[in-house]
Each structure stands twice: as structure tokens, then as C-alpha cells.
């Protein structure tokens, strides 16, 4: 069922719920990726020679950069999810109040 949302645009609540679920899945996948990165860095360097230690330092640096990127993406996704959930709640409230023509 498509109906006009309070702001005057059309909203499909089922599609919006599906989008929210999809974004939540993305956040969960990012969390799993972050945990995998943490596990990779927690391992000991492959050796104690200069090449092995340099490779390990590069791994740590790249992991820190990846974690920062993941954290930033999660923050943006969570903000989008919160905004969409608020929009859905407002729509459902308006629908219950009879303010949405069907």
C-alpha cells in the first residue's frame, strides 16, 4: 500500500522496513569484519626478522585505517537507520490518527 506521507511524498512502509533491515544487516557485517581485523592483528608477527616486523607494522597500520573507515561507515549507517525509523514511526502515527489518505 502506497500512501502520502505527512511531508507530502509517497511512502511504502513495507519497503522502508525492508531498507532498514538491509542497513542493519550492513552494520552487522561491518561489525563482523572489524572483529576479523582485530583477530588478524592480535596474532603474533610471523617472525622476528626486520622484514617480518615491518610487514606486521604495515598490517597494523592498514588495520587501524580500515577500522577507522568501518567505524565511520557504521556511524553514518546508524544515523541513517535512526532517521528512517523516525520517519516510519511518524508515518505510522499519522496513519493511526487517520491523517494518511489511502
UniProtKB/TrEMBL annotation:
InterPro entries on file:
PE-PGRS_N
Boundaries of every PE domain copy: 12-97
Which superkingdom does the taxonomy of this entry point to? Bacteria
Q: What is this protein called?
A: PE family protein
Q: What Pfam families would the database entry show?
A: PE
Recorded source organism is: Pseudonocardia sediminis
Amino acid at each position: 500500500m502506497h500512501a502520502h506521507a505527512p511531508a507530502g511524498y509517497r511512502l511504502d512502509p513495507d519497503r522502508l522496513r525492508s531498507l532498514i533491515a538491509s542497513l542493519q544487516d550492513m552494520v552487522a557485517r561491518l561489525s563482523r569484519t572489524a572483529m576479523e581485523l582485530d583477530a588478524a592483528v592480535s596474532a603474533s608477527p610471523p617472525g622476528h626478522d626486520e622484514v617480518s616486523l615491518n610487514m606486521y607494522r604495515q598490517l597494523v597500520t592498514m588495520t587501524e585505517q580500515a577500522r577507522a573507515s568501518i567505524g565511520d561507515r557504521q556511524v553514518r549507517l546508524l544515523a541513517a537507520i535512526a532517521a528512517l525509523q523516525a520517519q516510519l514511526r511518524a508515518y505510522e502515527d499519522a496513519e493511526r490518527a487517520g491523517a494518511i489518505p489511502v
